[in-house]
Amino acid sequence: MEDELKPREKLEKYGPQSLKDEELIAIILRHGIKNYNVFDVSEQILKKYKTLSHLVDISLEEISKEKGIGKVGAINLKAALEIGKRYHLQKLRQKYQKITSPKEAYHVCEDMIYLTKETVRAIFLDSKLHIITIKDISNGTVNMSIAHPRDIFKEAIMYNAVSFILVHNHPSGDPTPSMHDMDITKKIMESGEILGINMNDHIIIGKDSFFSFSLDRSEKID
């Protein structure tokens, strides 16, 4: 038990930044099982999943099956990872309050990397390209998102948006647009021209890159 207290003592004395990833996980899990202490558990998790960013992608069910974790430990770990992910996203959105490039649009929606189903999201903008709000429009399946132009423009009108950027993810990790992506982009652009609410771009988010219709190319994320 004394070993299990060491990360807590270290955090109290030197701050959380002094702890290794496995020590932070050990604090979250709190305890292991007989003949397999919490440090063994946390080290095994990182050995298998390599990094915390990879661990974010793993389902609650899969984590709970790991030796020494169980359902409660998995819930605690997923909750802690989600807090970190949301904090990171909030900091990005504070930084990019005005969207002037596809990369900035990517950054305010980069949490979509972790989604397991295709989701359509819209960044609604005012006349100076400041963000009014960011809304999820629809959730689809593993390989197809379902969104009708009327759903997007209904939200745009409600928020008095002058323009918007459409964003959706490809859970496969490949942001290359499908024929469906190209067709729906054309329809939405045409609808926007009629309504006077422009779609400035359509961003497809992949694992480590994104595709921008305004640039007509993919860009890697450093």
SSE topology:
Layout: H1 2-14, H2 21-29, H3 38-49, H4 52-56, H5 60-64, H6 70-95, H7 102-108, E1 119-125, E2 131-139, H8 149-158, E3 163-169, H9 179-195, E4 198-205, E5 209-212, E6 217-220
Parallel strand pairs: 3-4
Antiparallel strand pairs: 1-2, 1-3, 4-5, 5-6
Short description:
Belongs to the UPF0758 family. With about 220 residues, this protein is of the alpha+beta class. Helices cover about 45% and strands about 20% of the residues.
Which properties best describe this structure?
DNA polymerase, domain 1, Cytidine Deaminase, domain 2, elongated, alpha+beta, 2 domains, 222 residues
Describe the protein's architecture and organization:
Belongs to the UPF0758 family. This is DNA repair protein RadC. It comes from Petrotoga olearia DSM 13574. GO terms for molecular function: metal ion binding; metallopeptidase activity. The protein is an alpha+beta fold. It has 9 helices and 6 strands, in the order H-H-H-H-H-H-H-E-E-H-E-H-E-E-E. Helix 2 crosses helix 3. It starts with a helix and ends with a strand.
